[in-house]
Amino acid sequence: MSMEAYQKLDREIDTQCCNAIQIAISTVDRYPGTVTLELELLDTQSPNQAKLSLGSMEVTARPHSAPQLGHRDPLRLETSARISIDRFLLLPRT
After folding, report:
1. CA–CA separation, 88 vs 94, rounded Å?
2. Which residues contact 93 (CB under 8 A, 6 or more apart)?
3. What pLDDT digit, counting tens, does each position of 75-88 carry?
4. Distance between CA atoms of 52 and 69, rounded to whole angstroms?
């Protein structure tokens, strides 16, 4: 299953200013290790601009109430991820 979410930023990001972008998330998802989060940049002001992938990571965090699962539950195939992005933090070059 693949899902996309879009976050429009208030202003442009100069990619030369930053060494990294840190993403803070919250999760109540009961199936850690079954979701991968990828960050892509897209300049919506430039037509036909390709997306720039900044990488992806597996979401391994568990909510406090999550059961300890040793395998992927078959129900996950039809269950959306329950993750939200709280904030982005731009880490400047040093």
Report:
1. 19
2. 17, 18, 19
3. 556 677 788 888 88
4. 34
Detail the DSSP E strand segments found in 28-74: 35-41, 52-59
The residue among 33, 29, 23, 39 whose CA lies nearest residue 82 is 29
| Cα dihedral: 15, 38, 41, 87 (round 10) | -70
Q: Is 52 helix (H, G, I), strand (E, B) or coil?
A: strand
CA distance 83 to 26: 6
Confidence (pTM): 0.67
CA angle 32, 36, 41 (to 5 degrees): 145
